Amino acid sequence: MGQYELFPRAAWQDLPLSVLYYIHTNETMPGDHSHTFYELVLVREGGAFHFMNDEMVPIRAGNVFLVPPGKIHGYRDTEHLGIYNILFSAKILDTFKHDLSNTPNYQMLFHLQPELFSNMRTKTEMLTLDHGHFTRVVTLADEIMGEEKRKESGGRTVAFGEFLHLIGYIIRHAHIAGSSEKTSVYQISRLLAELDRNCAKEWSLESMAAFVRMSQSSFRQQFRLMTGTAPITYLLRLRLQKAASLLRLSGRIGDVAMRVGFQDTNYFTRQFHAFYGCSPREYKRQYKN
Question: In terms of domains, do 159 and 253 share one?
Answer without folding.
Answer: no
